[in-house]
User: Fold NitT/TauT family transport system substrate-binding protein from Acidovorax delafieldii.
Amino acid sequence: MSLPPLTRRAFGAVSALSAAAVWAPAIGVRAQTDGAALGRVTVAVGGQGVLYHLPLALADALGYFRLEGLDVVVRDYSAGALAWQAVQDGAADVCSGAFEHVLRAQARGHAYRALVVQGRAPQLALGVSLRSVPAYKDLGDLAGRKVGVSSVGSSTHLAASLMLMRAGVPLREVSFVGVGSGTNAMNALRSGQVQALCHADPIMTLLEQKADTRIVGDLRSLKAAQDMFSGTMPASCLYAPQAFIQKQPAQTQALVNGVVHALKWLQTAAPADLVKAVPPAYLMGDRGLYLAAFSRVRETYSTNGLMPDEGPATALRVLSRVLPELAEAKIELARTSTSDFVRKARQKYSV
Assistant:
């Protein structure tokens, strides 16, 4: 049976998500009406509107960076790997993205550090198109199929790889296809370009509510992440080159202060507070959908911004299974993150 295409409302909603990058920089600019004493910091993000980056978005939207005297400009990219590349190329100062990029950077001889942890679980899910795979029974049915990820090398790619490996599916039997985020990712699944998709919310909740997509792998809760990784897996964080941290300690501290302030706000925020705070485009035209997606991942946000004690070791152990460069490198875990800025921010905001 053929399934109906995206409704006009749903299509417009996802298109709005893709355009969400327009909102965040504008909010930051409007907030700086009286100038920023510490100047400007550019943050690269892979998929600005997804819940994965919510603490950063809130710090921006609520004016917390402005309170710190910092002008933050967010530049959006279609995938986390591309945002990381932007920092390497000098197009951005700091990245909001997956902690594993810090590990991979060190393996390649680059000094990066995670500054503040936003998420304690990947917040990703793997969905299968029942239109493309109508007789789907288990992950083994994806052998010989195409799995959509934001880009090869991004956290969506690694999460999908880990889920498939755990199910005993050889990765050589699966083709990973970079499909970006937002409208592009959803259309790639619904058009049959890919038969499965690994993505973040609220996209996956929207797909889950449709009859043609089945969630077959879920890392949107602390329990699911613990079961998968046998430890706390640091995911979304702000990270920066060591050179930037050393040259701009005041800007770095202000940036961390803003995110820690947002994490504190998030602990007690009511649903009505959240939908008022985020840019309207993030809601995808459906507040109920957005809040349903948020409720799935709310517990995974860090309560204080600190790197979990076992976090770096867990990440290295897990990711070494799929990244030969990490398995072969001598990673100095003590150099992958710093808690100095978070500790000062916690004192300031009593977190």
About this structure: The domain at 124-229 is CATH 3.40.190.10 (D-Maltodextrin-Binding Protein; domain 2).
